Known about the structure:
Elements: E1 3-8, H1 11-24, H2 34-44, E2 49-57, E3 60-72, E4 75-80, E5 92-93, H3 100-114, E6 119-126, H4 131-141, E7 146-158, H5 163-169, H6 172-187, E8 191-194, H7 205-221, H8 231-245, E9 249-256, E10 259-269, E11 272-280, H9 289-303, E12 308-310, E13 325-335, H10 340-372
Parallel strand pairs: 4-6, 11-12
Antiparallel strand pairs: 1-2, 2-3, 3-4, 3-5, 6-13, 7-12, 7-13, 8-9, 9-10, 10-11
Amino acid sequence: MSLTVERLPSFEAAHTVWNRLLVADGHATFFSTPTWLQTWWDHHRSGRELLLLVVREGAEPVGFAPLMTEPVTGGRAVLFLGSGLSDYADVLVDESRAGRRDTVYALLDYLGTQFRGALFDFQQIPSHSPTLGFMQEWLRERSLAGVTAVQDVCPVIRLPETPEEYHKELRKSFLADIRRGERRLRERGEVVITDHITPADGDWTGLRDQMSELQSQRMRTKGEIPMWQGPLGAFVKDVLAATDATGQLRLTGVYLDGKLIAYELCFLHKTTIFAWSRAFDEEHRNTGPGKIALLHLLETGIGQGYRLFDLLRGEEPYKELWTNGQIQNMRLTFVVRPSLGALVAYKYRTSWKEQLRKLAVLRRLNRLVKSLRGG
Length: 375
């Protein structure tokens, strides 16, 4: 099999190939879609260079890699497009036309030739994807070293055929608590649970601000800066509009007397619901409006034929009450023909950064101990 790799100049040039391979690849997630990644690029492109690669067998496209480069000390790094904000990343392959191993090898051969001395930092590859294993195999065959590490864990709910079956998987006391909370909430006023909220005029600013306020309540109680303020808020507004237009958005809301008091913001891809953001009004915490929204979303999703509900990165304790599985995300970092800058960046990302973080923690602890001792 003879495969060639071509660099495409723009999102527009990649559109047809990209969407075709999204449909063909059974491992693809929402975070590899042009809807997500083009919106991400519009807000985070500064200092970065787009690197969209299509793999062909003859004239036929069989693989696609949405990548980018960004500056690092003394050189550049090659990463998946959207790194940092995307919960998953992977190469897209039509395995009915070409093997994933051959496609991954062709991409890495091209990158190793075209980006000599660069740092390769491939993040958030789901462990169930064969891509990671083929990348590691490619490195071994060339006697190249790389660092592979677990980067994040994504708790998931493998959905059964009916809501009743899922109810049986939950602790009886937990389900009963949600039902009681909903009854208490209805005693406070008119409760409306909306499957999907969308602004009538198409302007997401107001609705985004309502959700941002709910987020801010929770983050202020933790002493954290609200995540939707500033540049990220502009990105959220645009990604809401883009995904709503393509039918990839599910925004479930709980209203009390016309006021939004809880929401679940999710993205849809094939038979998976990706739960990206959630929040509730702290004033009504004792009724569990967030739990009410999530249970409603799960019941509706099961009825619509979805088979996986992904709570994405983070092992927050509340997720354990809902989930029945998890996905590990892996990070693979390596250099092919190292320059001094690439070696420094490689060591920083694979070991020095963590060592420096630990050293900073130790210094803070030392200062605290000295202050407690009076000097």
